[in-house]
């Protein structure tokens, strides 16, 4: 083992280190090691340039997540030495001239195989700036929003959120490509919460796509609105603000906007009546019928795109429970919940179609992260003819009868029932 460590040390010193892979963790040792959780699978190490300094990036691969940490050469030698003496049974070191594989048997017998490299190998040193990401976590607002460290690294517990953010931006970008916008694109994000998805979309559309946009986040919690508007101001983000309002109140607003303007970064009086001229309506994880209120706002303001990730589906669930028409399903709580989700969102999709939207239902993020993983996307294509409208209403009626539903909140609110 010392021979392997010596090879590692000299490759770090003379700059010939290309990469290193650790595999086959010894389970019982992991549990006693303390710093690492038991579902560790591998560790991958590669050189990177961070702020003009050579560092080594460690990717700790766990069963369902990756964790990345960067260390200098001295720390790298120390950490790898610990990992191969304490945990991993296999280690492969790749240098510019040699590949060295070390295997440790369960009884502690070490064997090493060294192969010289015949082809000319180049070191693939990844520069921290060259990654072509949709979202740049080094933008200062991500640290202020609590997604990254001060250095712009996504923290371990926000990795899933970051993945969700990137997936979301990717989906919205794909959908927007099929829509023609005129002039400034006005986007309202209802129930914007801590703003991760709102900031992500703003960043992507302004920085990467160079779209001219105005973004309004609607959030009921005043403390969040104040905090987010401070971050927007500090980050000098133009035509972007959060407003303190319930979705319902926002949705009810007519042409005059009497809300208090909370951010001076919002330019031009034309955006003060934003709520009646929305191009893209977003509602992600807004509770129960708040999603419906947001959809109503989108339909009424003629939004070209309506994007929602519905949250809980209490209204329909309660109707189904009350009517007991589907007793065999209501008996099993989980199935009841799933059924209510599908019925609620299918009727939403049909109502969007009735009002001239081509609807798509897609998976937002893998089921393992959240059961609320459906994204409902409506793209305005023009009103259907009367025959088509009658067919849609017929379908809605049939679903309601089958599941003992008297009314769907959205249907009622849009005076379809
Ligand atoms: C689950 S969070 C979702 C945040 C964000 N849209 C996301 O998907 O990451 C829901 C947010 O909506 C807000 N909210 C809930 N009901 C609301 C309502 N009726 N009007 C406005 N905001 C509401 C909550 O305060 C919360 O911040």
Coarse morphology:
elongated
CATH class of the largest domain: Alpha Beta
**Assigned CATH superfamily of the largest domain:** Vaccinia Virus protein VP39
Query: Would you count the extended β strands for me?
Result: 15
CATH fold naming of the largest domain: Rossmann fold
Tell me what you see in this structure.
With 417 residues, the protein is of the alpha/beta class. It has two domains: 126 residues, no CATH class; 274 residues, Rossmann fold (3-Layer(aba) Sandwich), CATH 3.40.50.150. Helices cover 38% and strands 24% of the residues. The protein is built from 14 helices and 15 strands. The strands form two sheets. Strands 1, 2, 3, 4, 5, 6, 7 and 8 form an eight-stranded mixed β-sheet that branches. Helix 5 crosses helix 6, helix 10 packs across helix 12 and helix 12 packs antiparallel against helix 13. The longest helix is centred in the last third of the chain and has 22 residues. The chain is elongated, with a radius of gyration of 27 Å. About 5% of the residues have low confidence. The site of S-adenosylmethionine has 17 residues, from helix 6, strand 10 and helix 8.
